[in-house]
């Protein structure tokens, strides 16, 4: 049995020293005894970058403080959920006040009505929304209601888009352009993915071919309109419009998975930015303001297929949790009141202007990709891709070295070369200067 590494490595390539994190190291060793892999979500394990994970003691604004008291500029922000930054005083106050009244009721509360009203008023085409506790639940439920509404079984997804860990969506593409989904995880029977089709991104011909062959059986097509889990794979508006046209023509539903992009890239998500209205949309991250919240919504006609009005069952004891609703309401209110999306675009643009010259000086290819407050440094040899392409082993190794060099300089990047960075309203121009300086110094040490 593999033993956990005893050292969290943060390498200073100039002096060839290793920074120790004894408290994180000890916690990880304890965790490995009682938690599989020592973590409760795989990417946290640092397997993609080497070393053992940092354990976080607290967050404040744009910073993380680890178990050893070291402070880092955070560019993960709980994978995009903390759009205001860590422990925003107004959000903490709202959570605290609501918690004094009770943490969960298992009954309706005013907060879920207010948050639903805000989401419906913000997102194109939305008339009703139902809350759940995670993005995975949101997508799973949206697909169920899409199948019920259309009376069809097949679901189409795209290689490189992640929609949570429901069995029927943990699929990988096969050898053809339009293929049967094959399980990409142990424990998922092939029968569970038999009704899932996988297409390549940015390939209109493959879309047309699949629908010509099986269009009458397809219930829904789901896509991250800005795929952000296999790198940041920016899609052409024309391609997204093709999906809208084809699904409408064949009587299938179009689902935008905006768990990451919703309420981050714009108040109305990517749907607002590109002017394309899906039939259903899924949300998470930002609408919880750091609490576990997901949601899915669409027209009243579709959503009323859900129980108790309709014949499609979906439920959750903690759905519409009052504490989580208070957090989400406060977060969205502040984003609206403080021109949050405009400010995030400004800080994102500043990061782009600052980092591009530094990346051009690197001794190997690094491509910068940005969508608002999301950005990604692609280590692909050629230009940054729009489709799900694997990096070479050398590129992945380079990213791992960069990750640790940046960590040693007080900057916390995502612990995977395929994950995007997230900015928040807490980030400042001074933080961009720190990031730029750390990147320049780190790249200078890498060969």
What does this structure look like?
The protein is α/β, with parallel strands linked by helices and 447 residues long. The protein is 37% helix and 16% strand. It has 13 helices and 19 strands. The strands form five sheets. Strands 6-15-14-13-12-7-11-9 form an eight-stranded mixed sheet, with helices on both faces. Strands 3-4-5-18 form a four-stranded mixed sheet. The chain starts with 10 loop residues before the first strand and ends with a helix. The N terminus is likely disordered.
**Helical percentage:** 25-40%
Shape: globular
Helix vs. strand class: alpha/beta
Measured by DSSP, the beta-strand proportion falls in 15-25%
Biggest sheet record: 8 strands, mixed
Care to give the gist of this entry?
Helix content is 37%, strand content 16%.
Comma- or semicolon-separated keywords:
single chain; 447 residues; alpha/beta; 4-stranded mixed beta sheet; 19 strands; 37% helix; 16% strand; disordered N terminus
Please give the structural blueprint:
Elements: E1 11-12, E2 17-18, H1 22-34, E3 56-60, E4 63-66, E5 71-74, H2 89-101, H3 110-122, E6 128-132, H4 135-150, E7 154-158, E8 171-172, E9 179-180, E10 182-183, H5 190-193, E11 196-199, H6 204-214, E12 218-223, H7 237-250, E13 253-257, H8 269-274, E14 280-283, E15 294-298, H9 300-303, H10 322-337, H11 340-360, E16 367-371, E17 374-378, H12 393-408, E18 411-412, E19 421-422, H13 429-445
Parallel strand pairs: 5-18, 7-11, 7-12, 12-13, 13-14
Antiparallel strand pairs: 1-2, 3-4, 4-5, 6-15, 8-10, 9-11, 14-15, 16-17, 17-19
Helix pairs in contact: 2-10, 3-10, 6-7, 11-13
């Amino acid at each position: 049995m593999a033993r956990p590494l005893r050292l969290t490595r943060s390498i200073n390539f100039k002096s060839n020293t290793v920074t120790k994190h004894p408290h994180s190291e000890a916690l990880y060793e304890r965790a490995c005894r009682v938690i599989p892999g020592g973590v409760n979500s795989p990417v946290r394990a640092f397997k993609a970058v080497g070393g053992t994970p940092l354990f976080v003691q607290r967050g404040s604004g744009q910073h993380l403080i680890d178990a050893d008291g070291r402070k880092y500029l955070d560019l993960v922000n709980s994978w995009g959920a903390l759009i205001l930054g860590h422990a925003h005083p107004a959000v903490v106050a709202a959570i605290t006040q609501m918690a004094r009244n009770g943490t969960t009721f298992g009954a309706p509360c005013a907060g879920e009505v207010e948050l639903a009203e805000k989401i419906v008023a913000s997102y194109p085409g939305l008339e009703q929304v139902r809350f759940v506790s995670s993005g995975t639940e949101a997508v799973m439920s949206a697909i169920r209601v899409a199948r019920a509404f259309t009376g069809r079984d097949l679901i189409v997804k795209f290689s490189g888009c992640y929609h949570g860990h429901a069995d029927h969506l943990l699929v990988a593409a096969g050898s053809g352009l339009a293929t049967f989904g094959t399980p990409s995880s142990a424990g998922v029977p092939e029968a569970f993915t038999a009704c899932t089709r996988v297409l390549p991104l940015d390939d209109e011909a493959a879309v047309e071919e699949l629908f010509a062959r099986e269009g009458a059986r397809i219930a829904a097509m789901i896509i991250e309109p800005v795929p952000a889990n296999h790198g940041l794979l920016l899609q052409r508006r024309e391609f997204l419009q093709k999906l809208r046209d084809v699904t409408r023509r064949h009587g299938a539903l179009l689902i935008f998975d905006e768990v990451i992009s919703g309420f981050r890239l714009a108040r109305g998500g990517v749907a607002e930015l590109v002017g394309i209205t899906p039939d259903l949309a899924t949300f998470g991250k930002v609408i919880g303001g750091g609490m576990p919240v997901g949601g899915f919504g669409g027209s009243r006609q579709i959503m009323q297929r859900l129980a108790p009005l309709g014949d499609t069952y979906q439920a959750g004891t903690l759905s519409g949790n009052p504490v989580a609703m208070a957090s989400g309401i406060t977060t969205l209110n502040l984003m609206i009141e403080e021109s949050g999306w405009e400010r995030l675009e400004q800080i994102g643009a500043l990061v782009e202007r600052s980092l591009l010259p530094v990346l051009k000086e690197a001794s190997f290819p690094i491509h910068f990709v940005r969508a608002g407050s999301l950005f990604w440094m692609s280590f692909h040899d050629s230009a940054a891709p729009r489709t799900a392409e694997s990096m070479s082993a050398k590129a992945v190794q380079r990213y791992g070295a960069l990750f640790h060099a940046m960590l040693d300089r007080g900057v916390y990047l995502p612990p995977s070369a395929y994950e995007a960075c997230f900015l928040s309203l807490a980030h400042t121009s001074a933080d961009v200067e720190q990031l730029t300086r750390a990147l320049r110094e780190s790249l200078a040490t890498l060969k």
